[in-house]
Amino acid sequence: MRDAAFDAEGSRIRWTEAPGAEPARVYVHGLGASSAVYHAHIAARPELAGRRSLFVDLPGHGVSDRPAGFGYTLREHADALAAALDAARVSAADIVAHSMGGSVAIVLAHRRPDLVSRLVLTEANLDAFPPPEAGSSGITAYEEGAFVDGGHARVLEGVGPLWAATMRLADPRALYRSAVGLQRGSDPVMREILTALPVERVYLQGALSGELDGAEALEEAGVRVVTVPGAGHNVMFDRPDVFAAVVAGRE
Asked: What is the Cα–Cα distance from 241 to 251, expressed in whole angstroms?
């Protein structure tokens, strides 16, 4: 495990790393998750073997620090991720990112284009103010204080066991602020940034999640949209074969 400072107080963002050939693949988790849990089994597959792989936990999540004064906006998460990659001497990486992590990766590519050569996004949030059924909406239904003081525990009781297993590792205040930041989105908004990025972009959508809004416009902008049969939001668990093939560039 390695770490780097990401704020003025010296708080640390942490990641685990497997050695291999460059360019590196950097795996980024979603809201309330942890990168190694969601992606280590993918990086270990034969078709992805031999590449340097970093599994980064965003601030407030997993093994990273959770400073009380941090804002946890998409921009702040992206800058913290950039600090990790700078410390790891990573550039022109393949960023493999899930859900909120995909939003962070889009902002990272916009703010630090030197760090990103390819984006593989799995059901990334592209728009501000997602629909009520989005996972972040159950968190932001509370006020921050109420979420920290009991709401976090109630949300944990209502989510599936996989998400609960990693969500309980996230700091409640950081989780809440991350959800608020995700709902507010970025400026420009993530979808607008994504369509303009001059890098290879792939977007995976689980067929069980329904059609991706605006898929045709994304494809017209050069984003390759891959709909994965038999998969929901967690494509890497539902169809690891297809997920790995896309990451490897074979699908």
From this structure: 10
CA distance 240 to 138: 28
Cα 181 vs. chain centroid, distance in angstroms? 13
The sign of the dihedral angle between the CA atoms of 86, 87, 89, 92 is: negative
Task: Name 121's Cβ contacts closer than 8 Å, sequence gap at least 6.
Answer: 97, 98, 102, 105, 106, 194, 201, 202, 203, 204
How far apart (Å, rounded) are the C-alpha atoms in residues 62 and 13? 10
Written as one letter, the residue type at 225 is V
Asked if 95 and 82 count as a contact pair (C-beta separation under 8 A), the reply is: no
201 DSSP β-pair partners: 119
Confidence of residue 251 (pLDDT cuts 50, 70, 90): low
pLDDT of 160-208, one tens digit each? 999 999 999 999 999 999 999 999 999 999 999 999 999 999 999 999 9
Task: Dig out the tokens for 69 from the structure.
Answer: 């004064």
Strand ranges inside the chain, DSSP E: 2-5, 12-18, 21-28, 51-57, 93-98, 116-122, 200-206, 224-228
**In contact, 7 and 14? CB cutoff 8 Å:** no
Helices 100-111, 74-87: axis angle to 10 degrees equals 70
